[in-house]
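Q: Can I see a sequence and its folded structure?
A: Here is a first one.
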Amino acid sequence: MATVYSKDSIDPPDPIEKPHGNTASGFTLRNRALVYTGFTATGVSLALPGALMPWLLAHWSLQDSQAGLLLFLFFIGGTSGALLTRGALRWSIVRGATCTALGAAWLPFATRHTAYAAILLYGLGLGTTMTSISLLQARRFVADCAAEMTRLNLLWAIGACFGPWLILHDGLLDGAHARYVLLAIALGFGLFASLTAAFERDAPAKPSPQSPSTSRPSPWHLAAPFPLLLLVFSITGVESSSGGWLATYAQRGGHSLGITIGAPTCFWAGLLVSRLLHSSSRVSNAARRFLLTWNIVLMAIALTALILFHASPVMLAAAFLIGFTAGPMYPLLLALVLEHDTGPAVFVLAGLGSAAIPFLTGTLSTTAGSLRAGLIVPAAAASAMVLAGWWISNRTPSSQKV
């Protein structure tokens, strides 16, 4: 799930309390611990649906197409929550954390039919929480925003690495353990919502002066070239589909519990390492060209290897490489699109990709009777990205940097 953030999609904040002194210096250790802990928890929680998938499939006797619909609603909820973030950010965090807690508490007791509403609420809460925290920190660290966003991304990725182990270490189909973990997540986000309401304060938004005579284009207009938009749609879908289906794919291949936990963990670890390596706020022209070309080729090769070879070492290596190659792509593509469009449409497109490709993976899996066949969907998306990436790379001015 890509964190959706756009100044055009957010209303002006409600009246807020003015922080004492400089915004960053007035940000206490207690506030840092609370915000960073909460954002790390969103990483754990975002990785849980994929790790839970083997249990959910067995618990509700779901077909892969129905499980794909669960992932679709989860990521649609996250996108909607991000776009609906508005007003005083402290209370937006409280609303998001509360929705996450309610969704997590509902899932263990949901029926096969009400599970769809529960996971939609869960995703809605996570999307709202992640975006609100990102916006709040961007306001607090105006002069050091890039470094702060890097810190948040790394904390999020660390949490995501921990998520599969948390849900799977006691067994794939241990229903009691899965319920306890979900209820612990609910309790944690409920506590986070309470502490945020009690101790957090909003940071003032920097005004964006506009000339009254200047006409603004529709925020939903997309002027970026189609191949670039295809890249945005596909990269978020490949990322969410891989994270959502890897544990189930490993389990169905007859692998040990360690490999079933290790496959999604390697994916999130690859994402973490790549984001750490590409944490600079600017990307050189040579690095950008590599990311748009050979990096995507490596991603397509890893996805193909995942389908063709089922040996445990290949699965772990392919999972890591998928995460490693996907990690830096969304920030880069977002920067390229925002040169053409500044409205929220690109974030909606990214959210649709993250929802549609896991859903199509499950649908094809049910139709063909094989999840291996279903994984052709993200592999095909990566192959389309190869063509689009080379097209964009060859048409980007050589002097341009992102």
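Q: Show me another, different protein.
A: A second, unrelated one:
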Amino acid sequence: MEKIPSRRIFRALRELNDKEFKEFGKFISSPYHNSNKNLITYYNFLERYHPKFKEVKTTHERIYAALFPGKKFNYGILRNLNSEMVTLFKEFLAYSNYKKKTIQVDCNLLEELRKRKLESLFNREFKSTFEKIDSMQTRDEDYYLNKFSLESELNKYFDEKLTIGTALTFYKGKINEINDLTNYFIIAIFKEYIIQISGGGKIDFEKSLILHDELLSYISSNLDYYKQIDIIYLLYNFLVLLKESENEDVYNNLKKILKEKRHTINDYDIKTFYVELYNYCKRKQSEGSKKYGLESFEMLKNMIELGVFFNENGNMSDHNYINIAASAFRINESNWAENFIKVYKEKLPFEKREIAFNYNNAVLNFRKGKDSPDRDVYYEKALGFLSEINVDNFYYMTRVKNLSLQIYYELNEIDLALGMINTYKHYLSRDIVMPKNLKLSYLNYIHYVSKLIKIKTGSKIIHTTRIKKEISRNENMAYKGWLLERIKELEMKELS
């Protein structure tokens, strides 16, 4: 038995839910969209296999016989039907997407009414569309683009209707049109700036921040005006915070605006803003601020309640799953973290579920072992979880190596620790995607673990006082807290 011939159409239709699949059937059955009745028959045949098309096995001949009873098999006809079905599927997706954008549909209608000189219908439709836009609570870039499109149609209407002597209305309308387009541009490009600047801390790439400084300067010079446009004022403050990370007043102002203006911001932007605020807290915490450790954890709990970390399917990314648990561990909320790890495992994407779950459990057991008489048992469990992680990307590889190295050091497995340092150095030297600052922080980390191992194994050349100062002064050091704790242990040993 061979698989059904049109794998492409089966893969495509599998992505439609039951409601969408039925709508696709109506689309195919409409003479306006489809004049080939054989496609309707083909849809009815396919309907019995939705949604698990991947489980279906049959032959070309059997499909053809079901579509054309008593006719001699012709593969060319079946191939053409598959091709036409794919074309209709793409048209259906485009049409469905278009219908969702109701304001754009209205503006397209206004364009046709204007061109056909149907003034009475144009005026009624314009008033209805204007009221629809004006009633929107969310004032994002789509809002201003919709306003611009509507103003543009109205100005074209006036341009065709008014004489030179009575064209003041037209030119006043042009001012509104320009303001709406400018607001759309500022919102859109500010969002792109934030994505690029934030992304620069995750992977190394060449950023393009054309007009960044000029636009920030322009907003700053007209701040009273832009304070009235919530989304622009928010984005401006986020960009200032990214530029002036020491400015805590901006951080506090952003929290205040988000709380007060929540109703004017769309859900996607709310999620983005909270993530950026959390990242700021995390950076401040890594610099040694205990206040921001508690702040970031409370913010995370609020974000979970708000659904910030979940996509439209209710799933959470593996990165968020790991970062949330890590935030709890950093302020010794291990019980909360353990419950979180168990409860939200099923919310992870299937392909990353076990990887992220194993990593979080490795950290959990490492934390449990720190002050336990059964330390070695917990540490061996942690290494067991780490050994189950086999994935080739730096996000996981560095985490696995960093934690393994700490465990080997604390278990006094010197040979394993030195072997890990050697392979880790080679890994970092070969990687071309990791941001340079992140790579340097890991290189600094393993450099000082090497020195600690030398002291631990009896070296008299290296002194704890000196490397303690070096680590404390280094602003780009991963796991600085852990390193300083190990130095403290070595100092205590020297005194005993």
